[in-house]
């Protein structure tokens, strides 16, 4: 009787195991090196170049004011002895105020550029994630992992790296998209 129970239990176990193995399908995985992706993706390069050019242009304007300030400060040194202490104190206070205003202007410019580029970069990253998700579905991947600066994979065989495929597909899609000069809306609370 015990042998019969053992045989029945083993046969149930064998049937249940064979059913589960029939359900398991091949898991197709790959990974994308996100730091390489962002370096080689044309839209990311264009975005970086756009904000670099804006920073240089606005920086030149501010640099001209800083140069004028430095000239005024140099002139102050030579004129202070000739015009007396009262004049020197008044003019010195004006120069300090101007220096402070220039510092605030530099900070404001930096924050403005960071905010504007951050909005566009967030949109770009979101679009890339969506694209990779669609790419994975279309090509039958169960998982696509990300590596790079914020590594979630410590090791993977290079044969599973689809970074070049993703970069090529993204760049092809970007080239096919008509270019518009729309600026994304900057959040109202950030303007205050």
From TrEMBL:
Stored SUPFAM superfamilies: OmpH-like (SSF111384)
Pfam families attached to this UniProt entry: OmpH
A GO molecular function held by the record: unfolded protein binding
Keywords, in A-Z order: Coiled coil, Signal
UniProt entry tagged with the keyword Signal: yes
Domain of life of the source: Bacteria
Record GO biological process: protein stabilization
Coiled coil: 37-72
Alphabetical list of InterPro entries matching this protein: Chaperone_Skp (IPR005632), Skp_dom_sf (IPR024930)
GO cellular component, one term: cytosol
Gene3D superfamilies, per database record: Skp domain
Residues spanning the signal sequence: none
Family: Belongs to the Skp family.
Protein name: OmpH family outer membrane protein
Source organism (scientific name): Flavobacterium tructae
């Amino acid at each position: 009787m015990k042998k019969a129970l053992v045989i029945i239990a083993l046969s149930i176990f064998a049937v249940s195991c064979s059913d589960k193995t029939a359900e398991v399908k091949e898991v197709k995985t790959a990974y994308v090196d996100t730091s390489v992706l962002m370096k080689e993706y044309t839209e990311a390069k264009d975005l970086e170049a756009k904000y670099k050019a804006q920073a240089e242009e606005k920086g030149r304007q501010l640099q001209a004011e800083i140069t004028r300030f430095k000239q005024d400060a140099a002139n102050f040194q030579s004129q202070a002895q000739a015009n007396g202490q009262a004049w020197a104190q008044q003019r010195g206070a004006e120069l300090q105020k101007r220096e402070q205003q220039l510092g605030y202007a530099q900070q404001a410019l930096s924050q403005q550029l960071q905010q504007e580029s951050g909005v566009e970069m967030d949109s770009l990253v979101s679009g890339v994630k969506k694209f990779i998700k669609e790419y994975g579905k279309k090509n039958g991947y169960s998982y696509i992992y990300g590596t790079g600066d914020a590594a979630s994979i410590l090791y993977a065989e290079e044969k599973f790296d689809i970074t070049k495929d993703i970069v090529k597909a993204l760049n092809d899609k970007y080239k096919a998209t008509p270019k518009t000069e729309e600026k994304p809306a900057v959040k109202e609370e950030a303007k205050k």
